[in-house]
Amino acid sequence: METSTQNQQPPKQKVLYDSGNELAAYAAMQINYHIMGYYPITPSTQIAENLDASGAKGNHSIRLIAAEGEHSAAGICYGASAGGGRVFNATSANGLLYALEQFPVQAGTRMPMVMNVACRCVSGPLCIKGDHSDIMYLLNAGWIIFFADEPQTVYDFNLVGLKLAEAVRLPVAIAFDGFFTSHQKRKCMVFADNETVQNYIGSKCCDNEAALEGKKDAFYSVLDLEHPISVGSYMNEPDVTNNHYQLHEAMEEARKLMPTLFTEYETLSGRKLSLCRGYRHEDAEILLFLVGSSYPTAMEAVDILRQQNIKAGVVTISVIRPFPAEDLRNFCKSASTVVACDRQDSYGAGGGNLSLELKAALKDGAETSSIRVLTRIYGLGGMDFFVEDAIDLCKEGLLDNAPAFSYHGIVPGKQGTKQPPYFKPLTETDCSPGVTSCVFEEHGVAVTGGNLRESTAMPKRIAPGHGACPGCGIPVNLNLLLKGIEGNVILLFQTGCGMVVTTGYPKTAFRIPFLHNLFQNGAATLSGLVEVFHQKQARGEYPQGDITFVMVSGDGGMDIGMGSALGTALRGHGLILFEYDNGGYMNTGYQLSYSTPKGAKSSTSHVGKAQYGKTFFHKDTPQIMAATNIPYVATMAESHPTDFIQKAAKAAAYAKSQGTVYLKALSSCPLNWGDAPDKERGVIAAAVDCCYFPLYEIEQGNTKLSYDPAEKNKKIPVTDWLGMMGRTKHLLKDTYREITDEIQQEIDRRYARLRAMAESPLL
User: Fold this and answer.
1) In terms of C-beta density within 10 A (0-12 exposed, 13-18 middle, 19 or more buried), how is residue 15 classed?
2) Within a 10 A sphere around the Cβ of 481, how many other Cβ atoms?
3) Are 513 and 491 a contacting pair, CB within 8 Å?
4) pTM, to two decimals
5) Helices (H), 169-238
6) Which of 144, 404, 498, 633 is the 20 to 30 Å CA partner of 571?
């Protein structure tokens, strides 16, 4: 391969003290991709955050598109690559799994791109710490997979990876350990000039005619109108077999090309890259084989063991696909035992994916077929891996009777120990104090009671022992909601702050049954529970009586979970969908969601000379849900508690008798809104009074305003509300007058439409 560095002075480099996430973003900024389609998920979120921050400063021109979920993010990337663009993504854990079906599409149609994966434990149970259970799902998708064990190689592989992707026309994943490599800062070298990086990568020529003629550097594009092509056609045998064989050939081409690319990059940067690396492996009798950030730790252990006259060594790989079997055999050939350490398990297979592949590789070699391989599953859920752990694993591998497979670091529980309940379970009688009563009338449900004084008789289904931030609106809104619902209640929480702060294992704040599922599937999960409840009652397997089923969502969950919610509403299951809208994607530290106000700053909608915050208007979820023709939709706010409680009672009546109900409350988040916790009720009231968050209900298709600030002479301009929060206070500057005018006009338009709907029985 020709290099661009012959007869040239090495390019200038500079030192950064950054994490793997920061360096992935830095490399992407220097490459200046066309598109990044993404959805925030811990621990990869910082990549998008850093790119948005640098974009707001005008440091790159990448178009960052925040999708409503990882599946759509992968679709955005695929569409952009089909148009000949250079495309970038970052994800983790269940986000990777949610998008999984898109990845073979990207590879099978030979569309190059780069995706960073900050590896994390896959739910359930829910855990956001790092292990390798996510990246192993990508093994059979046709993607090249690098694995970086330190921040420096994250940067280097992001540059080499794109060049390799375009050379063989395959997508590339750059994997690294979440919260270890992703977040831990190290001193690293980067190229001082973006031009150096862009010259190294080279230009991308999208010319269908040239590609059809077989020119190596030309790519197909569906944007070429003079030479139209069809991408992703339907295929039968033998075309599918041929297609997959060509993908196999591309992977083998990547295997052959990598050493050349590594040598070229070493000439450019002075940093050596390789498929495999080893430390004191040449004469080692006992070897540790592990991948990722554990490798440097194991190196320290090897030095200690050598001082104890134990011939130990360690081997790692930097590329998982294509799997470097031959290189591994050469690195392991002196050992009598290899302890393969997997940070995930392929349950029932006797090992994780990498240990299984290591066994197969060694068995295929004449010199290595007799090597004993022991598998140890370790570090799941982000469990730290210390030097002492590596020493113990090596010493265990020296034992003749060491088991072939085991977990390292498990803690046995006490058999026969029964966990006592934290709270006395609430009975139907306890939860039926008569705070509210509902009667169905000709045009809807009439509610009596529900004022705050009466509501004190309702026991709290959620105990005070939660971990929410001071001023958080979630517990306030949940308690108001549940004050209005008499009788038995079962709660389902989608992933979010509300779930995390109340259910830290082994404790729970719930005094009633609670179920959790990921936010893209909460409504569907609860609909299944509702229907099995009715089926069991119909078959005489469950006592007769009523239960109110409530799904609780927020923190942006009605973005990624919108499809599931709409499907549930259209089917009409008897349940309440309750959204506490805190105006952001709060699960990973406040990124923009589709409910974030226009102009608000977040960690993915920064304010700078090239950006003023979020660039589009907030989603009108109540109107979207009303379009499904469910019997009851309502908005509520803690500033109007009696209205809140009465609507909750009405919602329960409809859910138990007529079908799906949707409720939405504006929920404060002082940490991310940038206001004072003790002022939140006033901030919520101002949102209602400026009509940003109007209070109304749509009952059996008829709209009714619950509160009209204009009639009460309390209507205020939206700037009064925006000025109360740090996230939007910048909009009051004259620079953004055009933006605030647009916001005011849109709020006025939406409210005028609501008033017109309230005045007409047909709207």
Assistant:
1) exposed
2) 26
3) yes
4) 0.92
5) 194-201, 208-212
6) 498
Q: Among the residues of 83-136, which ranges form H helices?
A: 93-98, 102-108
Nearest to 356 by CA among 344, 365, 368, 370: 344
HSE-CB at 276 with a 13 A cutoff on CA atoms is 20
Q: Which residue in this structure is represented by tokens 């492996």?
A: 281
The secondary element (H helix, E strand) that includes residue 73 is helix 70-82
At residue 413, the pLDDT reads 79
Start-to-end Cα distance in the chain: 68
DSSP state of 121: P
Which regions of the chain are under pLDDT 50?
A: 1-5
Q: What SS3 class is residue 103?
A: helix
Question: What is the phi/psi pair of residue 614, to 5°?
Answer: -65, 140
Which residue is listed with tokens 């440091």? 59
Angle formed by the axes of helices 194-201 and 239-269, to 10°? 140
Tokens of 382: 């982000």
Cis preceding linkage at 142, omega within 30 = no
Rounded distance between C-alpha atoms, residue 325 and residue 330, angstroms: 9
CA distance 578 to 562: 12
Q: Say what the pLDDT of residue 190 is.
A: 98
Work out whether strand 576-581 and strand 548-554 pair parallel, antiparallel, or are unpaired: parallel
3-state secondary structure 733-762: CHHHHHHHHHHHHHHHHHHHHHHHHHHCCC
Cα 528 off chain centre by: 24
3-state secondary structure 130-179: CCCCCHHHHCCCCCEEEEECCHHHHHHHHHHHHHHHHHHCCCEEEEEECC
513 phi/psi in degrees, rounded to 5: -60, 140
Q: Name the one residue in this structure whose structure tokens are 């265990």.
A: 396
375 exposure class (CB count in 10 Å sphere: 0-12, 13-18, 19+): buried
- Rounded (to 5) percent helix, strand, coil in the chain: 40, 20, 45
429 vs 235, 449, 452, 463, CA distance in Å? 62, 18, 20, 18
What pLDDT score was predicted for residue 1?
Answer: 41
pLDDT at 7: 59
